[in-house]
Give the backbone structure.
Amino acid sequence: MAGSRKSSPRGEANGVALPLSALDLVPLVQGGTSVAALRAAAELARAVDRFGYKRIWYAEHHNMPGIATTMPDILIAHVGSMTARIRLGAGGVMLPNHSALEVAESYKLLEAIYPGRIDLGIGRAPGTDALTALALRRSRKALTADDFLEQLGELIAWGGGKFPPGNPFREVRAMPDDRPLPPLYLLGSSTSGAELAAEMGVAFAFAGHFSPDSPDLAMRAYRTGFFPTGVLEKPYAILALSVHCADSDEAAHRMASSMLLSFAQLRTGHPGRLPSPEQAMAHVFTPEEEKIVTFFKKLQIVGTPEQVRARIVEIATRTQADEVMIATHAYDPAARIRSYELLAQAFGLPEAITASPAGITAEKITNSRS
Protein backbone atom coordinates (compact mmCIF):
# COMPACT_ATOMS: atom_id res chain seq x y z
CA MET A 1 0.00 0.00 0.00
CA ALA A 2 1.27 3.47 -0.84
CA GLY A 3 2.13 5.74 2.03
CA SER A 4 4.16 8.79 2.97
CA ARG A 5 7.68 8.55 4.34
CA LYS A 6 9.36 10.87 6.78
CA SER A 7 12.69 12.47 5.95
CA SER A 8 15.78 10.55 7.00
CA PRO A 9 19.28 11.70 7.98
CA ARG A 10 20.72 9.11 5.58
CA GLY A 11 19.94 11.60 2.78
CA GLU A 12 22.03 14.41 4.28
CA ALA A 13 24.97 16.25 2.75
CA ASN A 14 26.83 19.07 4.48
CA GLY A 15 24.74 18.38 7.58
CA VAL A 16 21.38 19.14 5.94
CA ALA A 17 18.78 17.10 4.06
CA LEU A 18 19.72 16.87 0.39
CA PRO A 19 16.89 17.68 -2.05
CA LEU A 20 16.72 15.58 -5.19
CA SER A 21 15.40 16.69 -8.56
CA ALA A 22 15.10 15.12 -12.00
CA LEU A 23 16.39 15.99 -15.46
CA ASP A 24 14.51 14.32 -18.32
CA LEU A 25 15.97 14.38 -21.84
CA VAL A 26 12.99 12.31 -23.07
CA PRO A 27 14.97 9.55 -24.80
CA LEU A 28 13.92 8.33 -28.24
CA VAL A 29 14.71 4.63 -28.24
CA GLN A 30 15.43 2.19 -31.03
CA GLY A 31 12.19 0.48 -32.01
CA GLY A 32 10.09 3.14 -30.28
CA THR A 33 8.16 6.24 -31.32
CA SER A 34 8.10 9.86 -30.25
CA VAL A 35 4.49 9.38 -29.13
CA ALA A 36 5.56 6.63 -26.74
CA ALA A 37 8.57 8.68 -25.54
CA LEU A 38 6.33 11.59 -24.59
CA ARG A 39 3.88 9.29 -22.82
CA ALA A 40 6.80 7.90 -20.83
CA ALA A 41 7.92 11.46 -20.02
CA ALA A 42 4.49 12.24 -18.62
CA GLU A 43 4.54 9.06 -16.52
CA LEU A 44 7.97 9.97 -15.17
CA ALA A 45 6.82 13.48 -14.25
CA ARG A 46 3.84 12.07 -12.37
CA ALA A 47 6.07 9.53 -10.64
CA VAL A 48 8.75 11.93 -9.39
CA ASP A 49 6.01 14.31 -8.29
CA ARG A 50 4.63 11.55 -6.07
CA PHE A 51 8.07 10.35 -4.94
CA GLY A 52 8.94 13.74 -3.42
CA TYR A 53 11.42 15.17 -5.94
CA LYS A 54 11.74 18.93 -5.79
CA ARG A 55 11.69 19.76 -9.50
CA ILE A 56 11.87 18.24 -12.97
CA TRP A 57 13.64 20.03 -15.79
CA TYR A 58 13.75 19.56 -19.56
CA ALA A 59 16.73 20.45 -21.74
CA GLU A 60 16.84 22.06 -25.17
CA HIS A 61 18.49 19.95 -27.88
CA HIS A 62 18.16 20.08 -31.65
CA ASN A 63 18.95 17.62 -34.45
CA MET A 64 19.80 14.83 -32.00
CA PRO A 65 18.14 11.55 -33.08
CA GLY A 66 17.98 10.09 -29.58
CA ILE A 67 16.53 13.07 -27.69
CA ALA A 68 13.00 14.53 -27.95
CA THR A 69 13.46 17.64 -25.80
CA THR A 70 13.59 20.34 -28.47
CA MET A 71 11.30 22.84 -26.73
CA PRO A 72 11.24 22.73 -22.92
CA ASP A 73 8.33 25.15 -22.61
CA ILE A 74 6.02 22.79 -24.51
CA LEU A 75 7.01 19.86 -22.29
CA ILE A 76 6.49 21.97 -19.16
CA ALA A 77 3.00 22.92 -20.34
CA HIS A 78 2.33 19.28 -21.23
CA VAL A 79 3.19 17.76 -17.83
CA GLY A 80 2.10 20.67 -15.67
CA SER A 81 -1.57 19.71 -15.59
CA MET A 82 -0.64 16.08 -14.81
CA THR A 83 1.37 16.94 -11.69
CA ALA A 84 0.44 18.51 -8.38
CA ARG A 85 3.37 20.10 -6.57
CA ILE A 86 6.70 19.48 -8.30
CA ARG A 87 8.48 22.49 -9.83
CA LEU A 88 8.78 22.45 -13.62
CA GLY A 89 11.59 24.05 -15.51
CA ALA A 90 13.92 24.42 -18.44
CA GLY A 91 17.35 23.02 -17.91
CA GLY A 92 17.68 24.93 -19.96
CA VAL A 93 16.72 27.44 -22.60
CA MET A 94 19.71 27.99 -24.91
CA LEU A 95 19.32 31.75 -24.97
CA PRO A 96 21.39 32.46 -28.13
CA ASN A 97 18.80 30.47 -30.11
CA HIS A 98 15.97 32.82 -29.09
CA SER A 99 15.05 36.43 -28.62
CA ALA A 100 15.03 37.51 -24.98
CA LEU A 101 11.47 38.83 -25.38
CA GLU A 102 10.24 35.46 -26.65
CA VAL A 103 11.75 33.67 -23.65
CA ALA A 104 10.39 36.23 -21.19
CA GLU A 105 6.86 35.97 -22.57
CA SER A 106 6.92 32.14 -22.78
CA TYR A 107 8.00 31.68 -19.18
CA LYS A 108 5.88 34.48 -17.74
CA LEU A 109 2.93 32.78 -19.45
CA LEU A 110 3.89 29.43 -17.91
CA GLU A 111 4.21 31.16 -14.54
CA ALA A 112 0.64 32.44 -14.99
CA ILE A 113 -0.60 28.92 -15.81
CA TYR A 114 1.29 27.23 -12.95
CA PRO A 115 1.95 30.00 -10.38
CA GLY A 116 4.97 29.43 -8.20
CA ARG A 117 5.99 26.19 -9.92
CA ILE A 118 8.17 27.33 -12.85
CA ASP A 119 11.98 27.56 -13.09
CA LEU A 120 14.00 29.14 -15.89
CA GLY A 121 17.44 27.68 -16.50
CA ILE A 122 19.50 29.58 -19.06
CA GLY A 123 22.40 28.21 -21.11
CA ARG A 124 24.92 29.79 -23.44
CA ALA A 125 25.58 26.83 -25.76
CA PRO A 126 23.47 26.17 -28.88
CA GLY A 127 22.47 22.68 -27.76
CA THR A 128 23.30 21.35 -31.22
CA ASP A 129 25.86 21.38 -34.03
CA ALA A 130 26.98 24.53 -35.85
CA LEU A 131 24.89 23.95 -38.98
CA THR A 132 21.69 23.41 -36.99
CA ALA A 133 22.50 26.47 -34.90
CA LEU A 134 22.75 28.46 -38.13
CA ALA A 135 19.34 27.14 -39.20
CA LEU A 136 17.88 28.18 -35.84
CA ARG A 137 19.37 31.68 -35.84
CA ARG A 138 18.96 32.28 -39.60
CA SER A 139 22.12 34.34 -40.13
CA ARG A 140 25.86 33.84 -39.81
CA LYS A 141 26.07 37.17 -38.01
CA ALA A 142 23.71 35.89 -35.30
CA LEU A 143 25.65 32.62 -35.15
CA THR A 144 28.95 34.36 -34.38
CA ALA A 145 27.58 37.20 -32.23
CA ASP A 146 29.06 37.39 -28.74
CA ASP A 147 26.03 39.03 -27.15
CA PHE A 148 24.93 36.55 -24.46
CA LEU A 149 25.31 39.09 -21.65
CA GLU A 150 23.29 41.64 -23.61
CA GLN A 151 20.54 39.06 -24.22
CA LEU A 152 20.56 38.05 -20.57
CA GLY A 153 20.27 41.69 -19.50
CA GLU A 154 17.27 42.14 -21.80
CA LEU A 155 15.64 39.00 -20.41
CA ILE A 156 16.02 40.24 -16.84
CA ALA A 157 14.73 43.70 -17.81
CA TRP A 158 11.65 42.22 -19.48
CA GLY A 159 11.18 39.94 -16.52
CA GLY A 160 10.56 42.81 -14.14
CA GLY A 161 13.64 44.94 -14.18
CA LYS A 162 13.96 48.18 -16.11
CA PHE A 163 15.69 49.17 -19.30
CA PRO A 164 17.95 52.21 -18.95
CA PRO A 165 16.75 55.55 -20.32
CA GLY A 166 17.15 55.77 -24.06
CA ASN A 167 16.97 52.03 -24.65
CA PRO A 168 14.77 51.37 -27.70
CA PHE A 169 13.00 48.50 -25.90
CA ARG A 170 12.01 50.59 -22.88
CA GLU A 171 8.38 50.86 -24.01
CA VAL A 172 8.00 47.17 -24.92
CA ARG A 173 6.30 45.06 -22.26
CA ALA A 174 6.65 41.30 -21.93
CA MET A 175 3.17 39.92 -21.42
CA PRO A 176 1.52 38.92 -19.20
CA ASP A 177 2.97 41.87 -17.31
CA ASP A 178 1.37 40.99 -13.96
CA ARG A 179 3.47 37.83 -13.55
CA PRO A 180 7.17 37.80 -12.69
CA LEU A 181 9.86 35.97 -14.58
CA PRO A 182 10.39 32.58 -12.88
CA PRO A 183 13.51 32.09 -10.73
CA LEU A 184 16.62 32.25 -12.88
CA TYR A 185 19.34 29.57 -12.93
CA LEU A 186 22.49 29.93 -14.99
CA LEU A 187 23.68 26.62 -16.42
CA GLY A 188 27.29 25.69 -16.96
CA SER A 189 29.73 22.88 -17.59
CA SER A 190 32.91 24.80 -16.72
CA THR A 191 34.25 27.40 -14.31
CA SER A 192 33.40 30.29 -16.68
CA GLY A 193 29.67 29.67 -16.29
CA ALA A 194 30.09 29.37 -12.53
CA GLU A 195 31.97 32.65 -12.33
CA LEU A 196 29.30 34.46 -14.35
CA ALA A 197 26.50 33.11 -12.13
CA ALA A 198 28.47 34.19 -9.06
CA GLU A 199 29.06 37.68 -10.45
CA MET A 200 25.36 38.08 -11.27
CA GLY A 201 24.26 36.72 -7.90
CA VAL A 202 21.92 34.09 -9.38
CA ALA A 203 21.56 30.35 -8.80
CA PHE A 204 23.89 27.99 -10.66
CA ALA A 205 23.45 24.48 -12.10
CA PHE A 206 26.50 22.45 -13.10
CA ALA A 207 26.17 19.78 -15.81
CA GLY A 208 28.04 17.04 -14.02
CA HIS A 209 26.14 14.40 -15.99
CA PHE A 210 28.23 15.07 -19.11
CA SER A 211 30.91 17.68 -18.41
CA PRO A 212 34.52 16.50 -18.86
CA ASP A 213 35.50 18.93 -16.10
CA SER A 214 35.29 17.95 -12.45
CA PRO A 215 32.45 19.78 -10.67
CA ASP A 216 34.73 20.69 -7.76
CA LEU A 217 36.43 23.69 -9.35
CA ALA A 218 33.24 25.17 -10.82
CA MET A 219 31.20 24.72 -7.64
CA ARG A 220 34.01 26.25 -5.56
CA ALA A 221 34.40 29.16 -7.99
CA TYR A 222 30.67 29.86 -7.74
CA ARG A 223 30.63 29.93 -3.94
CA THR A 224 33.81 31.92 -3.43
CA GLY A 225 32.92 34.48 -6.11
CA PHE A 226 29.23 34.86 -5.27
CA PHE A 227 28.11 38.48 -4.95
CA PRO A 228 24.64 39.14 -3.46
CA THR A 229 22.80 41.49 -5.80
CA GLY A 230 19.28 41.36 -4.43
CA VAL A 231 18.34 38.42 -6.65
CA LEU A 232 19.80 35.97 -4.13
CA GLU A 233 21.26 36.78 -0.74
CA LYS A 234 23.39 33.64 -0.71
CA PRO A 235 24.57 31.15 -3.35
CA TYR A 236 22.47 28.18 -4.42
CA ALA A 237 24.10 25.44 -6.51
CA ILE A 238 22.51 22.45 -8.20
CA LEU A 239 24.70 19.55 -9.32
CA ALA A 240 23.37 17.34 -12.13
CA LEU A 241 24.61 13.74 -12.06
CA SER A 242 24.11 10.71 -14.31
CA VAL A 243 22.60 7.98 -12.13
CA HIS A 244 21.27 4.47 -12.77
CA CYS A 245 19.86 2.66 -9.74
CA ALA A 246 18.25 -0.80 -9.55
CA ASP A 247 17.45 -3.52 -7.06
CA SER A 248 20.65 -5.33 -8.05
CA ASP A 249 24.05 -4.14 -9.19
CA GLU A 250 23.75 -6.27 -12.33
CA ALA A 251 20.41 -4.72 -13.29
CA ALA A 252 21.76 -1.20 -12.74
CA HIS A 253 24.78 -1.78 -15.00
CA ARG A 254 22.54 -3.37 -17.59
CA MET A 255 20.34 -0.26 -17.63
CA ALA A 256 23.39 2.04 -17.82
CA SER A 257 24.89 0.15 -20.77
CA SER A 258 22.50 1.81 -23.23
CA MET A 259 23.82 5.24 -22.39
CA LEU A 260 27.44 4.11 -22.68
CA LEU A 261 26.94 2.91 -26.24
CA SER A 262 24.84 5.95 -27.14
CA PHE A 263 27.51 8.33 -25.84
CA ALA A 264 30.24 6.47 -27.72
CA GLN A 265 28.24 6.65 -30.96
CA LEU A 266 27.56 10.35 -30.46
CA ARG A 267 31.20 11.21 -29.80
CA THR A 268 32.39 9.24 -32.84
CA GLY A 269 29.98 11.04 -35.16
CA HIS A 270 27.29 8.36 -35.37
CA PRO A 271 24.40 9.61 -33.23
CA GLY A 272 21.27 7.51 -33.20
CA ARG A 273 18.35 6.43 -31.09
CA LEU A 274 19.03 5.03 -27.65
CA PRO A 275 19.93 1.33 -28.03
CA SER A 276 18.53 -1.42 -25.86
CA PRO A 277 20.70 -2.99 -23.15
CA GLU A 278 20.82 -6.17 -25.26
CA GLN A 279 22.23 -4.21 -28.20
CA ALA A 280 24.67 -2.38 -25.97
CA MET A 281 26.01 -5.48 -24.25
CA ALA A 282 26.40 -7.32 -27.57
CA HIS A 283 28.23 -4.40 -29.21
CA VAL A 284 31.92 -4.82 -30.01
CA PHE A 285 33.51 -1.47 -29.19
CA THR A 286 36.27 -0.05 -31.36
CA PRO A 287 39.43 1.23 -29.62
CA GLU A 288 38.16 4.82 -30.08
CA GLU A 289 34.78 3.92 -28.57
CA GLU A 290 36.49 2.14 -25.66
CA LYS A 291 38.34 5.34 -24.74
CA ILE A 292 35.08 7.29 -24.76
CA VAL A 293 33.29 4.65 -22.69
CA THR A 294 36.14 4.57 -20.15
CA PHE A 295 35.80 8.33 -19.71
CA PHE A 296 32.00 8.35 -19.50
CA LYS A 297 31.94 5.55 -16.94
CA LYS A 298 33.67 7.96 -14.57
CA LEU A 299 30.66 10.29 -14.82
CA GLN A 300 28.06 7.58 -14.21
CA ILE A 301 26.88 6.55 -10.76
CA VAL A 302 25.56 3.00 -11.07
CA GLY A 303 24.46 0.42 -8.52
CA THR A 304 22.03 -0.51 -5.78
CA PRO A 305 20.28 2.15 -3.67
CA GLU A 306 22.84 2.08 -0.87
CA GLN A 307 25.80 2.15 -3.28
CA VAL A 308 24.35 5.01 -5.27
CA ARG A 309 23.26 7.00 -2.22
CA ALA A 310 26.74 6.81 -0.70
CA ARG A 311 28.37 8.07 -3.90
CA ILE A 312 25.89 10.92 -4.37
CA VAL A 313 26.25 12.07 -0.76
CA GLU A 314 30.04 11.98 -1.04
CA ILE A 315 30.07 14.12 -4.20
CA ALA A 316 27.41 16.52 -2.90
CA THR A 317 29.30 16.98 0.37
CA ARG A 318 32.62 17.49 -1.39
CA THR A 319 31.22 20.07 -3.83
CA GLN A 320 28.86 21.70 -1.29
CA ALA A 321 25.91 21.16 -3.62
CA ASP A 322 22.62 22.49 -2.27
CA GLU A 323 20.66 20.08 -4.45
CA VAL A 324 21.34 17.14 -6.76
CA MET A 325 19.53 16.74 -10.07
CA ILE A 326 19.33 13.15 -11.27
CA ALA A 327 19.62 12.37 -14.99
CA THR A 328 18.65 8.76 -15.76
CA HIS A 329 18.75 8.21 -19.51
CA ALA A 330 17.42 4.67 -19.93
CA TYR A 331 15.86 2.50 -22.62
CA ASP A 332 13.12 0.98 -20.45
CA PRO A 333 10.68 3.57 -19.01
CA ALA A 334 9.67 1.23 -16.19
CA ALA A 335 13.30 0.68 -15.15
CA ARG A 336 13.84 4.45 -15.23
CA ILE A 337 10.87 5.10 -12.93
CA ARG A 338 12.05 2.34 -10.61
CA SER A 339 15.50 3.98 -10.44
CA TYR A 340 13.98 7.28 -9.30
CA GLU A 341 11.74 5.45 -6.83
CA LEU A 342 14.65 3.58 -5.24
CA LEU A 343 16.59 6.83 -4.89
CA ALA A 344 13.61 8.52 -3.22
CA GLN A 345 13.46 5.70 -0.71
CA ALA A 346 17.22 5.66 -0.15
CA PHE A 347 17.27 9.39 0.57
CA GLY A 348 14.08 9.33 2.61
CA LEU A 349 12.41 12.07 0.60
CA PRO A 350 9.66 13.66 2.74
CA GLU A 351 6.77 12.82 0.46
CA ALA A 352 8.15 9.66 -1.15
CA ILE A 353 5.63 6.95 -1.96
CA THR A 354 6.70 3.37 -1.36
CA ALA A 355 4.73 1.96 -4.28
CA SER A 356 4.63 2.90 -7.95
CA PRO A 357 2.05 5.55 -8.93
CA ALA A 358 -1.46 4.29 -9.58
CA GLY A 359 -1.94 2.97 -13.06
CA ILE A 360 1.77 2.57 -13.87
CA THR A 361 3.07 -0.93 -14.43
CA ALA A 362 6.14 -2.20 -16.23
CA GLU A 363 3.95 -4.03 -18.73
CA LYS A 364 1.87 -0.95 -19.48
CA ILE A 365 4.88 1.28 -20.11
CA THR A 366 6.78 -1.31 -22.15
CA ASN A 367 3.76 -1.97 -24.36
CA SER A 368 3.26 1.77 -24.96
CA ARG A 369 6.23 1.75 -27.35
CA SER A 370 4.10 0.32 -30.13
Notes: The chain has a mean pLDDT of 89. The two ends are 30 Å apart (CA to CA). The first strand starts at residue 12 and ends at 13. The domain at 9-237+330-367 is CATH 3.20.20.30 (TIM Barrel).
